[in-house]
């Protein structure tokens, strides 16, 4: 049985009348959800969505459309969209380092993200440049 979506801030379960999740690596995964009358979310709120296989991840509400006489229609983007919230200072930069060092350099400018476990050899050195305005664009360019 698939779990109901839950609001991450409160743990409250939602009861959608329809839910569609499109899972991708790039571009980011997206979802659309119709909520029953009496339930609503605001832009920016985060929801954990589930598939029959388990959690599909955290998604952020990017649009809320009230359909007169019907449900509230939500558009959601995968939680990684929050990587685009912080601006990378400076102009085009080149980084020559290990992946761990490069990610650490980029994440120093973020307030919400910290580096977790990176399972790549530290002795490998990579050179890449970025001229993007936010961390999400920079990281997806690596792919």
Structure write-up:
The chain is mostly beta strands. The chain is 12% helix and 36% strand. It is built from two helices and eight strands; from the N terminus they run E-E-E-E-E-E-E-H-E-H. A six-stranded antiparallel β-sheet has the order 1-4-5-6-3-2, with no helix packed on it. Strand 2 (16-22) and strand 3 (30-35) form a beta hairpin.
Provide the fold topology.
Blueprint: E1 6-7, E2 16-22, E3 30-35, E4 46-51, E5 54-66, E6 72-78, E7 93-97, H1 99-107, E8 126-130, H2 135-142
Antiparallel strand pairs: 1-4, 2-3, 3-6, 4-5, 5-6, 7-8
Distance between the termini: 34 Å
Q: Tell me the helix content.
A: 10-25%
Quaternary structure classification? single chain
* Total helical segments: 2
Q: Approximately how much beta-strand content do the residues carry?
A: 35-45%
Poorly predicted runs of 5 or more residues = none
Structural class of the secondary structure composition?
Answer: mainly beta
Report strand order across the widest sheet. Answer: 1-4-5-6-3-2
| Global Rg | 18 Å
> Secondary-structure element order, as H and E?
EEEEEEEHEH
* pLDDT averaged residue by residue: 81
Main sheet overview: 6 strands, antiparallel
Please tell me what the overall shape is.
elongated
The count of strands amounts to: 8
Give a short synopsis of this structure.
The protein is mostly beta strands and 143 residues long.
